[in-house]
Design brief:
This protein folds into three domains: 273 residues, Transferase(Phosphotransferase) domain 1 (Transferase(Phosphotransferase), domain 1, Orthogonal Bundle), CATH 1.10.510.10; 219 residues, Neuraminidase (6 Propeller); 280 residues, TolB, C-terminal domain (Neuraminidase, 6 Propeller), CATH 2.120.10.30. Strands 1-2-3-4-6-5 form a six-stranded antiparallel beta sheet, covered by helices on one side. By secondary structure, it is mostly beta strands. The chain has twelve helices and 59 strands. 50% of the residues are buried.
Length: 888
C-alpha cells in the first residue's frame, strides 16, 4: 500500500513520493535521528513478504553499502522493508550535448564504474534514468547493483526508458537483466554477465548524450531486443573523437569489447579509426546472429528447431528466441497464450493461495502478476481481439467469464457445464467455446445464453470437438474433431451461418491438437499451426478460398500437449511453445519400496497411461498410446512373472481405463458403440467378444470393483456438471437390466474412487473445496447416497489418486507436490483417520498412475529417463519475428 506524507518507517518520516517502478516506490523522507533527508526505496509487498528473498537482498545490500565513491549514490542500510539511500538532488542527463559537456558526464560515470568494478561489483542496469547530475555538476550513479539484488522479478511500467530491470527468463546461470535499449547482447540472451556488460551500457549512454537519440530505438521491447542482438551500431552521427571508444565499448562479442572502463579516456585521445569491413558487414552480423539463435534454441528446448522460409520475402527482422519462466514457487500448467498484439501473455499456474489462477506477463515487465478473481480457473484462457480482455472458465458450478488484462472484477458471461476445451473471440463481439462432448457454442461478449454452433457426429465416431479459432472474417472458424474412426479426426472449418447439424464434414487436415491461426501480412493468407506426433507444424492457408495453399513446414520438435491442447501459441510477430512431449508421453513401469528405492522395472519405456494390479498380483493392466492422437488407447495385460505384454482387445476402437474383477475378468471403457465409450467386460484370456455391461451417451470410466464382485464404481462426465460417481450392480439376475445408483452427484468433480478391502468405505478425490482433496465416505448398498453414512477429509493441503493398502489399514495418495503420502486408518468400530505421513517423491503419469501390492511395494507409471525433469518445470520459448524463418 502506498505511503502518505507523515507516515513513518522506523526513524524515517515520509515527506513525498518521488517515483515508482518495478523495484518499488521511492520516497523523500526525513531521518529524524540524524536530521537529514534521505531516499527510501520501499520494496514491493510480494518481495518484502518473502523471507528468502529478503535475506538475499540483505546480503547484497550489505555489499553495496560498502561502496564509497563521490560518483556513486550511497546506500545507508535497510529499515523494515525499505532501502535507505542518499538523496540525490538533480536531473538525469539528456542529449544532444556538446562533446566536452557530454564527456564531463561520461568521465565521471566511468570513474564510478571503475571503482565498483575493482571491488567486483557490476551495476547491471546502467541507463540515463539511473544517472543524476547535481546542481554542482557532480554525477551520481543510482541503483548500483540492485538489479542483482532484485533477481526475483517484479512488475514495471511499460515505459522502456524509465522501466527498471527487464527480465524475460531467469535461471541460476543466466538472467536477462537490464532495460532493453541499454542491455548488452549477452544480457539479452540470458547469459551471466560481468563488468563488460556495464561497458556496453556506458557506450549506449554516451551515444545518447552525444546524439540525443537512443542507440537502439525499437517500437517495443521485442523490436528493441532484436536490434540489440542483430543490428550493428551506426556511429555516423557521433563526433569522430568518440567513435573509436564507442566501437570498443559496443562490440557485440564481449571478448572483443573494451575490458576495463578505466581505459575509456585513453581511447578518446587516439586517432579515430574506421571499423574493419569484417566487423561492420551486415552479412557477417546476420550470420553471427543466426548462429546464436540456432544454438540458443537447441539449448532452450533440447530439440532441433528447424525454421524454414515459408515464402520468398524481402529482408525482414531477424528471428530472436527468448525464454519465459513461471512465477517463483510455481509452475506452468500448460503454456502461455500470447495476446493478439504480441505484447503480453496469459497463463494458468498455482496462485499465492494454492489455487490455480491466471497470471499476466507483459514483455516489458519484470515478472508475472496474478489476476485476482480467477482462482480455480481451468486451462486454455483466450484473448479478446483488442488484447484488452481474457476469457476463462472457473467456479463451482463453472461459469464462462471475462476479465480485463489490467485486472478488476471478472464478469460472468454464461453458465458452463461439461468439459472445457478452449475458446475464441472475434471483432464483432462473438465468443465461441468448446464443451468438448457437446460441441462448439456461441455467446455474446456482453453475456447471455449460449447456443450450439456445431454438433457431435456420433455416426462418424466423434467423441469430442475442441479448440475453436476464429479466422479473419469473424464468420468462419477452425476447430478440432476427435473421432474413434481412423481418418475422421482432424481440423475442420466451421461457419456461424450454418446450422449445427449442417457444418461441413470435409476434413481440412489431420492433427493431434487444437488449431491456432496466425495471420500473414499478406491479405487473405495465413498459417494454421498444429501438432503432429509432437512436432509443431505450420500449414499455409488461404482464408478467402478456405483452402490449404502449400506444403506444411515443421517449426519445432518435442512440443508438449495435454489431451488435444498443444503447448504453443502465436500472435502478431511472436510464437510461444513449451517442450515436454517426451516427459509427458514416455514413461516406465517401476517398482518402489516404501522408502522410494527402486526395486525393479517391467517392460521397456513406452506411452503408458493407467496401471492396475490384479487381486492376486500376477497380472498388470496398462493402457498405452498417445492420448493426443485422437485419444486412441489400447489395453495390454502383462504377466508379472515373465514380463510379457499382450494386447487384450483387437481392432481400431479405443479400449482403456480398466479394473480387475475378482472373477478373473477385466472391466473397461470401450470406444466402439457410442460417442463417449461404454463399459464392457472381457476375460483376461482375451477369448470371445467383450460383454456390454452398461451403455449411455456419456463418457464414463471404471474406477474399482468391490472384492466380492458385486459392485462397480465408475465416474461419468455429466453435461451439467463435472465428473460424478455412480455404483453399477454387477450381480443381477439373468435378463435383468443393470441400473446405476448415484453415489456422489454434486456440482464438484469427483473421481478416482476405490472401495476399501472390506467394502464398507469408498476413498475418492474431489475439488469441492476449490482444490483437489482426498475424502472417504461410508458405503452401504441399501443406503445411498453414501453421504448419509459419514464423510472424512483424508489429505492434508491437497491430494489426489487415493489407494487402499491391501489390509485396509492405510490410505495412500499423491500430494500436490508429487509426494506419495500414507494415512493410517481404523475402520472398526468406526472410521478414524490418522495424520498424513510423506513417504517419497514420485513422478507419476496417467490418471490411474500407480498401484499398491500386497507386500507394500508401489508399482508407479513413472516419467522415463528422458523426462526426469517433470514437464511443468520446462520454460516457455518465445520466438520474435518467427515468420521470417531460418534456413533449415
Amino acid at each position: 500500500m502506498p505511503l502518505a506524507a507523515g507516515d513513518k518507517l522506523g526513524p524515517y518520516e515520509i515527506m513525498a513520493l518521488l517515483g515508482a517502478g518495478g523495484m518499488g516506490e521511492v520516497y523523500r523522507a526525513r531521518d529524524t535521528k540524524l536530521k537529514r533527508d534521505v531516499a527510501l526505496k520501499v520494496l514491493p509487498d510480494s518481495f518484502a513478504a518473502n523471507p528468502d528473498r529478503m535475506a538475499r537482498f540483505q546480503r547484497e545490500a550489505e555489499v553495496l553499502a560498502s561502496l564509497n565513491h563521490p560518483n556513486i549514490a550511497q546506500i545507508y542500510g535497510l529499515e523494515e522493508r525499505a532501502l535507505v539511500m542518499e538523496l540525490v538532488e538533480g536531473d538525469s542527463p539528456k542529449g544532444p550535448l556538446p562533446f566536452e559537456e557530454a564527456w564531463k558526464i561520461a568521465g565521471q560515470i566511468a570513474a564510478g564504474l571503475e571503482y565498483a568494478h575493482e571491488k567486483g561489483i557490476v551495476h547491471r542496469d546502467l541507463k540515463p534514468a539511473n544517472i543524476k547530475v547535481t546542481p554542482g555538476g557532480v554525477v551520481k550513479l543510482l541503483d548500483f547493483g540492485l538489479a542483482k539484488a532484485f533477481t526475483a522479478q517484479t512488475p514495471v511500467s511499460g515505459n522502456l526508458e524509465n522501466s527498471p530491470t527487464l527480465t524475460l527468463g531467469a535461471t541460476q546461470v543466466g538472467v536477462i537483466l537490464g532495460t532493453a535499449a541499454y542491455m548488452a547482447p549477452e544480457q539479452a540472451k540470458g547469459k551471466a554477465v560481468d563488468k563488460r556488460a556495464d561497458i556496453w551500457s556506458f557506450g549506449a549512454v554516451l551515444y545518447e548524450l552525444l546524439t540525443g537519440e537512443r542507440l537502439f530505438a525499437g517500437d517495443d521491447v521485442s523490436d528493441t531486443l532484436a536490434q540489440v542482438l542483430t543490428k550493428q551500431p551506426n556511429l555516423e552521427m557521433v563526433s569522430a573523437r568518440a567513435r573509436h571508444l564507442l566501437r570498443e565499448c559496443l562490440a557485440k562479442d564481449p571478448k572483443r569489447r573494451l575490458r576495463d572502463i578505466g581505459d575509456a579516456e585513453r581511447l578518446l585521445l587516439e586517432e579515430a579509426a574506421p571499423a574493419s569491413p569484417a566487423a561492420d558487414a551486415p552479412s557477417q552480423a546476420r550470420l553471427a546472429a543466426g548462429s546464436w539463435i540456432a544454438a540458443g534454441l537447441m539449448t532452450a528446448v533440447a530439440a532441433a528447431l528447424a525454421f524454414a522460409h515459408f515464402r520468398e520475402k524481402p529482408p525482414a527482422a531477424e528471428v530472436v528466441p527468448l525464454q519465459i519462466v513461471p512465477p517463483e514457487r510455481s509452475a506452468f500448467t500448460t503454456t502461455v497464450v500470447l495476446s493478439p498484439d504480441g505484447r503480453k501473455a496469459v497463463f494458468d499456474a498455482t496462485g499465492p493461495n494454492g489455487l490455480p489462477m491466471l497470471w499476466i506477463r507483459s514483455f516489458d515487465s519484470l515478472e508475472a502478476r496474478p489476476l485476482a478473481g480467477t482462482e480455480s480457473s481451468l486451462t486454455r484462457p483466450f484473448w479478446s481481439p483488442d488484447s484488452r480482455f481474457i476469457g476463462f472458465v472457473s467456479g463451482f458450478p463453472s461459469k464462462l467469464k471475462k476479465i480485463e488484462a489490467t485486472g478488476g472484477a471478472p464478469q460472468t458471461l454464461c453458465d458452463f457445464a461439461g468439459n472445457w476445451f478452449g475458446g475464441t473471440w472475434n471483432s464483432q463481439g462473438t465468443i465461441l467455446f468448446s464443451n468438448a462432448l457437446g460441441g462448439i457454442f456461441r455467446v455474446s461478449e456482453g453475456g447471455g445464453t449460449a447456443v450450439p454452433v456445431t454438433a457431435i457426429d456420433a455416426s462418424h465416431g466423434e467423441i469430442a470437438q475442441a479448440g475453436p479459432a476464429f479466422l479473419p472474417d469473424g464468420q468462419h472458424f477452425l476447430y478440432l474433431r476427435v473421432s474413434n474412426v481412423a481418418g475422421n479426426g482432424g481440423i475442420y472449418v466451421g461457419s456461424l451461418g450454418v446450422k449445427p447439424e449442417q457444418q461441413s464434414v470435409k476434413r481440412l487436415l489431420s492433427s493431434d491438437s487444437d488449431p491456432v491461426y496466425a495471420p500473414s501480412p499478406q491479405s487473405g493468407l495465413g498459417e494454421i499451426l498444429f501438432l503432429r506426433e509432437g512436432s509443431l507444424v505450420a500449414q499455409p492457408f488461404d482464408t478467402r478460398r478456405m483452402e490449404l495453399t502449400g506444403a506444411s513446414t515443421s517449426l519445432a520438435e518435442d512440443i508438449g500437449s495435454t489431451l488435444t491442447y498443444g503447448w504453443f501459441s502465436a500472435s502478431a510477430g511472436a510464437l510461444a511453445f513449451r517442450s515436454g512431449r517426451s516427459a509427458a508421453i514416455n514413461s516406465q513401469l517401476i517398482w518402489f519400496d516404501r522408502q522410494g528405492k527402486e526395486t525393479g522395472r517391467i517392460g521397456p519405456p513406452s506411452e503408458y497411461n493407467d496401471v492396475q494390479l490384479s487381486p492376486d498380483g500376477k497380472s498388470i493392466f496398462v493402457d498405452k498410446g498417445n492420448i493426443t492422437s485422437g485419444i486412441i488407447l489400447h489395453i495390454w495385460v502383462v504377466d508379472v512373472a515373465r514380463g510379457v505384454f499382450r494386447r487384450l482387445i483387437p481392432g481400431e476402437g479405443s479400449d482403456y481405463s480398466g479394473v480387475f474383477s475378482p472373477d478373473g475378468s477385466l472391466v473397461f471403457t470401450f470406444g466402439i458403440g457410442g460417442p463417449g465409450g461404454d463399459i464392457y467386460r472381457a476375460p483376461l484370456s482375451g477369448a470371445g467378444m467383450p460383454e456390454l455391461l452398461f451403455k449411455s451417451p456419456l463418457v464414463k470410466h471404471p474406477n474399482d470393483i468391490s472384492r466380492d464382485g458385486r459392485f462397480l464404481l465408475y465416474d461419468e462426465h455429466h453435461p451439467a456438471r463435472q465428473q460424478d460417481l455412480y455404483v453399477l450392480p454387477l450381480a443381477v439376475p439373468a435378463g435383468q437390466e443393470r441400473k446405476p445408483i448415484p453415489f456422489l452427484v454434486t456440482p464438484a468433480d469427483e473421481t478416482f474412487a476405490q472401495f476399501s478391502p472390506d467394502g464398507k468405505w469408498v476413498a475418492y478425490s474431489s475439488d469441492e473445496s476449490g482444490r483437489r482433496e482426498v475424502y472417504v465416505q461410508g458405503f452401504a448398498p441399501d443406503h445411498v447416497p453414501a453421504a448419509a453414512v459419514g464423510k472424512w477429509l483424508i489429505s492434508s493441503a491437497g491430494g489426489d489418486k487415493p489407494r487402499w493398502s491391501q489390509d485396509g489399514k492405510e490410505i495412500y495418495y499423491i500430494a500436490l507436490n508429487g509426494k506419495v503420502m500414507a494415512v493410517p486408518v481404523k475402520t472398526s468400530p468406526s472410521f478414524d483417520p490418522g495424520a498424513a505421513v510423506p513417504l517419497f517423491d514420485a513422478h507419476t503419469r496417467g490418471f490411474s498412475s500407480y498401484a499398491v501390492a500386497a507386500d507394500g511395494r508401489f508399482l508407479i507409471n513413472t516419467a522415463s529417463d528422458a523426462g526426469e525433469a517433470a514437464p511443468n518445470s520446462s520454460p516457455v520459448t518465445v520466438v520474435l519475428n518467427w515468420e521470417t524463418g531460418l534456413k533449415n
